[in-house]
Structure formats: structure tokens, C-alpha cells
User: Which sequence fits this backbone?
């Protein structure tokens, strides 16, 4: 190997020089990264470029670059669309109900799990609680449709108390509760993992000190446990708010039907119907982009509020 | 430590609550199992909870076995598990290994560009058009390449490689091993637990996914199991709805009901079988992703 001793080169290696050296040493490594880089370019970055059709009248025969440019026209026609407010309302109602009821549930579960003194029982419950996360959405929605049907088990139960049998999925007013409750059923255990881990990381001495100060178990939870997991809670809350409008459309598509569109149709399912089923590619891309931009703004607002309040932030 | 009366009451209440949660979680699966073994006529007449099969029979499973759609769905899903699973694992492991070498000049930039894709994406329609632009429409490869790497899994894997002490890697390269040999002979054996986690995540994902198949595939012979299941479960239900309250219908329909439960069993049991063995790994996995992700 040739050793370069010239002082002027050692002193100020240019970026290009360092890059050349780096390429010589790590060239083989970079070669390994090529397939992965190709994947991200072709399947992640290229579709981002495809967002351009939101501003065009895209026609597949002309291609993305040659299609007619129309500016914000699709955004305007979405905002003035008769369904606009219904879609916005449903998106906000479903996502906010999921947040209000779904966000505290895993925290409460983790706190209660933490209070179990028998560790084997605790692990057993955790094992069971994580399970629904691994079951396919199709099976879960199959269960929901079966159980809420007019001859389903929920009606069987309620009919004991004299409630009339109804097919719940065919009534708009029941869609949001069904969605939120089943979401908690599938996700509560899995989401509790991260809080549970944070709980086990709390310094045991803090509890001992609290006991000496005369705190009972409830007070220990309020003054030691919850402050201990607060950073985790804040981080998860910001992340959830930043994802608020990205509703799980798979589940809605499986559960809704034209009778319940009134409360069940959200922006992402509308994008699916308009784009995939009806082929209005440009319009539906614009609607999707509208949703993403709103969502991103929410993330920034949540992060800023949290930082200003001194509760920590993502960046 | 002495327990106050309030604490004892709370403990009892807490244990009871946990048992109720476990029951609410498990009972639906038990119900499906019991329903699938029940004689369909008796099952249709039944109301309320089921605790044991109503007249044990395997008729529903016989229908499932004879159903060609379910069989091809099963084969297609197995194909995806093997082919896509291998491709995903290979790309993820190799990519993660390279990305764990922070000293290489281009790696931080590459990492940044990869993390960006977790926050920004083209969305449903541009992604769909992109897949079609490669001529993958109506081909099983549409389910393989466009989702071959899961970015979250890639980052978990990278964190695992990063946690391996640098000396090991350096010693190998001083001994003259190239980076591919170092990766496969030395690094991979050190991160087996994480590889198991990633494998589980990919496998469950492949087994459960259906939406992409619905978007890209029109040829029914290519449908994976979940999409076949959807046709049987969801469509059957809407058909029943259109036909009015058809629940008290003839023999065909009552058969269909327990067959539907049997299909749910077929689609769920493989997951239930691997679940207990792998659960000790996946909790570690989610923590790996959370700590440094």
C-alpha cells in the first residue's frame, strides 16, 4: 500500500478525496446496499414523485409527465364536493373516538398488569392479551360481522334483557362504537407492551422512598408510576396524533356498506372507491394528499404544543 | 409487607378483571372452534354462548378440504411465505448490516433517506399506479417486490447489528474475511434472536395480508388464502343481507355457516400454533425497535 506523506495532503483532505478513500475501503459494502437502495428508489421514492398527478388530469396513455397540468383544481373540487363535510366529520369522529378511548386503554392495562403480584399469572395474561394482534383483519372482521348479526351472540345476550334484535352493522349509529371497541379488543394488549416495559424500568428505590413517606399503593401509582412513564406516554401521544387521520381503511372497507356510509365513509375509503374502483386517479390522489398534509400539520402542532409545555418532543 | 384491607380488595378485583380480559380475548376464538365442529342444523337453532360443540362433526372441514378455491389460496400463500419471506429476510439482513456501519461515509445519508419513507409516502393511488407501471398488475409478483422490505423491520435489524461489539467485525476483516463472509459466518449467528423476531413479523404479515392482493389481482387462481377467506366470509354475509333475513334458510345455507367458521379456523390455527413458541422473541423485538428506533 502506498503511504502518502506529503504534508499538504494530510492537512486538508478535500471532501472528494475522503469520498474516494471511503469508496475504496467500503466499496464492497456499498455494492451490497444496491438492491436495498433500488427497492427504496423504485417502490418508495418513485410513488412520491407520482403525487404530481394530483395537479394534473392524468391519463394513463399520455403518462405522468405529459398529462395536462390543472393546478389545484382537484383540491377545489374536493373541498366543494357535497361529501366533503361528511368525509371530514367521519374521519375526525372515528379517529378522535379511537384516540380518546383507545389511547388510555393500554396504559390502564399496563398499570393493572404491573400490580399483579404473581409473575406467572402476569405473563400468562400478557401472552393472551397480545394474541389478537396477530390475527388477520379478515378473521377479526369476520368475527365482528358474525357476532353483531341479528342472530349473533351480542343480540342473543341483549335479547335476554328484552332488547330487540338488530343487525348492528346495518345501522349508521352503531358503526363508530363497533369500530372503536373492536380496535381496543385487537390492540390493547400489544400496545401495552411499551408502557409495561417503561414501568419495569422505574427505579425500585423510588417506591421504597414513597412507602417510607407513607404512600399507599394508590398514591404510589399517582406519584411514582405515572410520572415514571410520562415521557413514554407523551411520545406515544404525539405519534398517535401525528397518525390521527391515517385511519385503518382496511377494517372500514371490510365492515362498512352503502347503508352505513353516513357515519363510516372516511377520506381514505373514499380515495379507495374513487381511485381504485372508479379510476379517477388524479382526483383521488389529490384527496389523499389533502389528508396527508392535514395529518402532517397535526403532527407538527402536537409536537410544538408538547415542547412548549415542557413535556418533551420528538424533535 | 402488611397489606391493608383496601389493597386486598383491590388485588382480588384486579385478578378478576384480568381473568375477564383473558376470557373476552379468548372466547371468540373458542367460539369459532366450537362452531366449526358443530352440526350445522343444531348450530343454527342455537342461541347464546356455546361451550361445547353441538354434536361433534367434521363435515365443515370436509367441505373446506374439497373446496378448490381454499386449496389454491393455501398454496399461493405458502408460495408467498417461502419466496417473499426469503427475499424479505435476505434484503433486510444485508441492508441492515450495511446500515449498521456508521463509519462508512454514505451510510448516515442512506439511513436518513430510508427513515424519511416512514413519514412520507405517495399514498394509495400513486403506489398503485407505480406497481402497475412495472407491469406487475395481475401477477403474484405484485405482492412480492413492492413490499419486500418493511422499513420498521429493517431498523430493528440494524439496531441488532449495531449492538454487536465492533471488535468482532474488525477482527474478522483483519483476518481477511470479505464483508459477505463476515456477515454470514460471524455476524448472523450473533443476532439470531432478532432474526427470529423479524422472520415472525414478516411471516405473520404475509399470512395475514389481503389488501394488496385485492388491489392488484383479478385472476382468482392467484388469490392468497386471506382474500379467498374474505370472499367466503364478507361476501357471503352481504349476499345473505340482500336476500333478506335468510338465517333460517335451507340446508345449503346452514352448511355454509359452519363452513365459514371452519375456514376461519384454517386461517388462524397456523398462527396459534407458532405463537407460543415465538412470543418470547417478539417482546424483545418491539423493545429493540422502540429503544433506538
Assistant:
Amino acid at each position: 500500500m502506498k503511504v502518502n506523506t506529503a504534508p499538504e495532503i494530510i492537512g486538508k483532505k478535500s471532501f472528494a478525496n475522503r469520498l474516494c478513500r471511503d469508496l475504496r475501503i467500503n466499496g464492497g459494502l456499498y455494492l451490497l446496499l444496491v438492491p436495498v437502495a433500488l427497492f427504496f428508489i423504485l417502490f418508495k421514492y418513485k410513488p412520491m414523485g407520482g403525487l404530481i398527478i394530483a395537479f394534473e388530469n392524468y391519463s394513463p396513455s399520455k403518462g405522468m409527465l405529459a398529462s395536462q397540468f390543472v393546478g389545484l383544481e382537484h383540491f377545489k373540487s374536493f373541498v366543494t364536493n357535497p361529501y366533503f363535510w361528511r368525509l371530514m366529520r367521519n374521519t375526525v369522529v372515528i379517529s378522535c373516538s379511537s384516540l380518546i378511548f383507545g389511547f388510555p386503554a393500554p396504559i390502564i392495562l399496563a398499570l393493572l398488569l404491573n400490580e399483579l403480584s404473581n409473575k406467572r399469572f402476569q405473563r400468562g395474561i400478557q401472552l393472551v392479551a397480545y394474541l389478537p394482534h396477530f390475527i388477520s383483519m379478515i378473521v377479526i372482521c369476520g368475527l365482528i360481522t358474525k357476532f353483531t348479526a341479528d342472530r349473533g351472540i351480542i343480540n342473543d345476550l341483549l335479547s335476554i334483557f328484552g332488547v330487540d334484535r338488530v343487525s348492528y352493522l346495518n345501522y349508521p349509529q352503531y358503526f363508530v362504537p363497533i369500530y372503536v371497541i373492536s380496535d381496543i379488543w385487537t390492540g390493547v394488549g400489544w400496545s401495552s407492551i411499551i408502557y409495561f416495559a417503561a414501568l419495569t424500568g422505574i427505579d425500585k428505590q423510588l417506591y421504597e422512598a414513597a412507602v417510607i413517606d407513607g404512600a399507599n399503593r394508590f398514591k404510589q401509582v399517582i406519584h411514582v408510576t405515572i410520572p415514571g412513564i410520562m415521557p413514554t406516554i407523551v411520545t406515544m401521544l404525539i405519534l398517535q396524533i401525528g397518525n390521527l387521520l391515517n385511519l385503518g381503511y382496511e377494517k372500514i372497507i371490510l365492515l362498512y356498506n352503502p347503508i352505513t356510509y353516513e357515519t363510516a365513509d372516511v377520506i381514505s375509503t373514499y380515495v379507495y372507491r374513487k381511485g381504485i374502483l372508479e379510476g379517477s386517479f388524479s382526483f383521488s390522489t389529490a384527496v389523499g394528499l389533502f389528508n396527508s398534509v392535514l395529518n402532517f400539520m397535526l403532527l407538527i402542532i402536537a409536537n410544538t404544543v408538547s415542547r412548549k409545555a415542557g413535556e418533551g418532543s420528538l424533535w | 409487607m402488611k397489606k391493608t384491607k383496601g389493597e386486598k380488595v383491590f388485588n382480588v378485583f384486579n385478578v378478576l378483571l384480568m381473568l375477564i380480559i383473558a376470557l373476552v380475548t379468548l372466547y371468540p376464538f373458542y367460539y369459532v372452534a366450537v362452531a366449526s365442529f358443530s352440526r350445522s342444523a343444531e348450530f343454527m337453532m342455537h342461541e347464546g354462548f356455546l361451550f361445547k360443540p353441538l354434536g361433534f362433526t367434521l363435515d365443515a372441514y370436509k367441505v373446506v378440504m374439497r373446496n378448490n378455491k381454499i386449496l389454491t389460496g393455501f398454496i399461493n400463500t405458502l408460495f408467498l411465505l417461502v419466496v417473499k419471506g426469503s427475499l424479505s429476510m435476505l434484503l433486510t439482513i444485508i441492508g441492515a448490516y450495511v446500515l449498521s456501519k456508521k463509519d462508512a461515509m454514505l451510510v448516515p445519508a442512506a439511513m436518513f433517506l430510508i427513515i424519511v419513507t416512514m413519514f412520507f409516502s405517495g399514498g394509495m393511488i400513486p403506489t398503485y399506479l407505480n406497481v402497475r407501471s412495472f407491469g406487475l398488475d395481475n401477477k403474484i409478483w405484485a405482492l412480492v417486490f413492492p413490499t419486500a422490505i418493511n422499513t420498521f423491520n429493517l431498523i430493528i435489524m440494524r439496531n441488532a447489528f449495531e449492538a454487536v461489539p465492533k471488535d468482532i467485525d474488525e477482527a474478522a476483516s483483519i483476518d481477511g474475511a470479505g464483508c459477505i463472509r463476515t456477515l454470514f459466518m460471524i455476524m448472523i449467528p450473533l443476532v439470531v434472536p432478532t432474526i427470529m423476531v423479524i422472520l415472525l413479523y414478516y411471516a405473520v404479515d404475509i399470512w395475514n395480508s389481503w389488501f394488496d392482493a385485492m388491489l392488484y389481482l383479478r385472476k382468482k387462481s392467484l388469490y392468497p388464502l386471506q382474500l379467498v377467506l374474505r370472499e367466503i366470509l364478507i361476501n357471503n354475509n352481504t349476499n345473505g343481507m340482500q336476500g333478506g333475513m335468510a338465517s333460517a334458510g335451507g340446508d345449503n345455507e346452514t352448511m355454509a355457516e359452519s363452513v365459514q367458521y371452519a375456514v376461519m379456523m384454517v386461517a388462524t390455527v397456523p398462527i396459534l400454533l407458532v405463537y407460543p413458541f415465538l412470543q418470547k422473541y417478539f417482546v424483545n423485538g418491539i423493545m429493540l425497535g422502540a429503544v433506538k428506533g
Residues 238-255 of chain B have pLDDT under 50 and may be disordered. Chain B is about 75% helix and 0% strand. The radius of gyration of chain B is 25 Å. Residues 19 and 25 of chain B are 10 Å apart (CA to CA).
